């Protein structure tokens, strides 16, 4: 595994043990392989290539991000269909396809700099052993005529196949809820009275998640994704997630090596800022615009970066209502939007958030000095979230806490919290009937919660 599995790892030859699984995990992260930590197809194919071949592919990935940023493009061929790429009408009334500018321009730059082959890449690094301040100028072709400093952009999110039914029966046995059509995120530009898709990426929607209620017990709750028109008014770099009271305490603290000692600390990796945080490296906030001087209505839904890749690419992956993108694609998206829209730099959104919580016998203090660095879109960017195809018998989302099967509770579920982060993805129909179907027969806390990207038990 390119040095990730060594003699000190404790691996036993011939066994697929934790040491080997951790080595595969690090190998997948290095090569941007979005699979579970087993020997699946993409991982095996990458392991079969030489280290030099894998390094060349990594160089091309890095170069692609530099090129799309420098050229201020986003088109990557993902909007193509079985009929080919989408087309747009030019000023001369001719039809032209939306080309894969990310690949085309990256290939051009690689060829110009001699980085298109392994031999050329090795020669480049030998000529430039240190190139932290090296700059290269490459003449690029003109961008398509729909490009400009103030593009009429919009976003459409198709939620795909939706299941509102409880994913388990009264005994806690999992019920199958297959999805053939997964959520899709499309960025479009309006050009000469036509809406032209530029990219179409896989994303996430909400589903059944574990939440902690005011009584201190964990329940299940349907955390859906809002349907209908919204806007993105604020784009926040380095966003911070303010964990609502309904967040399970077990996720707010973690063990971490501090000065060589393993000790419990507040889980700032989850809160942010940082690439591992709940909102990733950048987020767009979905709101319903306020009218007649009233404030925007924020239901806690964001389109943001994430390192939870399995929640985006596995059949059983869900979010808590937000629309996730891999961090590098989220950066591409919002960099493109900010460079092709009128914006106002609002700057650092300072705050003085302090919260204490108890986990076991330890008292933790959480401090968040800033929400992140904000850019305001003027006018805001239109977003339309489509309902999708509703499967199963339940046709509307259940609103409220649903007891976990096999857990004994002190009484009926408490009322839902009301902050935007806690509201995120709240349903509309009553969950009381569903709650009454769940048997409460084992000691409190017997049922384990679910982790990000995993199916319900």
Keywords:
457 residues; alpha+beta; nine-stranded mixed beta sheet; three-stranded antiparallel beta sheet; 10 helices
Write a concise synopsis of the structure shown:
With 457 residues, the chain is of the alpha+beta class.
Radius of gyration: 24 Å
User: Shape from CA axes?
Assistant: globular
| Topology, number of strands | 20
As a percent range, the share of helical residues equals: 10-25%
Biggest sheet statistics: 9 strands, mixed
Report on the architecture of this protein:
By secondary structure, the chain is α+β, with helices and mostly antiparallel strands. Helices cover 21% and strands 29% of the residues. It is built from ten helices and 20 strands. It has helices at residues 18-30, 41-48, 51-71, 101-113, 118-127, 268-271, 309-313, 327-339, 420-423, 432-436; strands at residues 87-89, 95-97, 153-158, 161-163, 184-191, 194-202, 207-212, 218-223, 228-237, 253-258, 261-266, 282-287, 302-306, 323-326, 343-359, 362-386, 389-391, 398-399, 401-403, 429-430. Strands 3, 5, 6, 9, 12, 13, 14, 15 and 16 form a nine-stranded mixed beta sheet that branches. It has a three-stranded antiparallel beta sheet with strand order 7-8-19. The chain has a two-stranded antiparallel ribbon with strand order 1-2. A hairpin with a 5-residue loop joins strand 7 (207-212) and strand 8 (218-223). Helix 3 (51-71) packs across helix 4 (101-113). The longest helix has 21 residues, at 51-71. It starts with 17 loop residues before the first helix and ends in a 21-residue tail after the last helix. Residues 426-457 have low confidence and may be disordered.
């Amino acid at each position: 595994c390119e040095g990730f599995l060594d003699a000190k790892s404790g691996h036993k030859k011939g066994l697929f043990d934790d040491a080997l699984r951790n080595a595969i995990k690090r190998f997948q992260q290095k090569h941007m392989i979005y699979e579970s930590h087993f020997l699946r197809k993409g991982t095996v194919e990458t392991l079969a290539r030489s280290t030099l071949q894998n390094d060349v592919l990594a160089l091309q990935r890095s170069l692609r991000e530099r090129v799309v940023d420098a050229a201020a493009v986003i088109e990557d061929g993902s909007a193509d269909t079985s009929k080919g790429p989408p087309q747009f009408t030019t000023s001369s009334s001719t039809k032209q396809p939306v080309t894969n500018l990310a690949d085309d321009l990256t290939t051009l730059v690689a060829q110009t700099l001699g980085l298109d082959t392994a031999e050329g890449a090795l020669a480049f690094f030998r000529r430039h052993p240190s190139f932290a301040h090296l700059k290269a100028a490459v003449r690029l072709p003109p961008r398509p005529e729909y490009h400009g400093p103030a593009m009429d952009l919009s976003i459409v999110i198709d939620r795909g196949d939706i299941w509102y039914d409880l994913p388990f029966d009264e005994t806690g046995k999992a019920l199958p809820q297959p999805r053939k059509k997964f959520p899709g995120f499309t960025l479009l530009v309006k050009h000469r009275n036509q809406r032209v898709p530029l990219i179409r990426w896989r994303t996430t929607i909400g589903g059944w998640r574990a939440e902690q209620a005011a009584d201190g017990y964990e329940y299940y709750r349907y955390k859906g994704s809002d349907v209908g028109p919204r806007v993105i008014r604020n784009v926040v770099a380095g966003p911070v997630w303010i964990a609502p009271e309904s967040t399970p305490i077990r996720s707010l603290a973690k063990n971490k090596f501090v000065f060589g000692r393993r000790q419990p600390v507040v889980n700032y990796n989850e809160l942010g800022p940082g690439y591992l945080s709940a909102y990733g490296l950048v987020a767009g906030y979905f709101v319903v615009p306020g009218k007649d001087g009233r404030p925007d209505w924020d239901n806690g839904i964001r389109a943001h970066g994430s390192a939870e890749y399995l929640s985006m690419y596995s059949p059983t992956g869900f979010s808590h209502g937000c629309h996730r993108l891999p961090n590098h694609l989220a950066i591409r998206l919002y960099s493109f939007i900010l460079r092709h829209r009128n914006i106002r730099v609002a700057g650092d959104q300072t705050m003085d958030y302090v919260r204490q919580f108890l986990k076991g016998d330890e008292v933790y203090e959480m401090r968040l000095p800033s929400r992140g660095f904000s850019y305001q879109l003027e006018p805001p960017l239109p977003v339309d979230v489509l309902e999708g195809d509703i499967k199963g018998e339940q046709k509307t989302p259940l609103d409220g806490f649903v007891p976990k099967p096999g857990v004994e509770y002190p009484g009926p579920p408490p009322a839902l919290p009301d902050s935007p982060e806690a509201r995120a993805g709240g349903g509309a129909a009553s969950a009381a009937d569903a709650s009454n179907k769940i048997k409460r027969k084992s000691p409190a806390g017997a049922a384990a919660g679910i982790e990000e990207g995993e199916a319900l038990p």
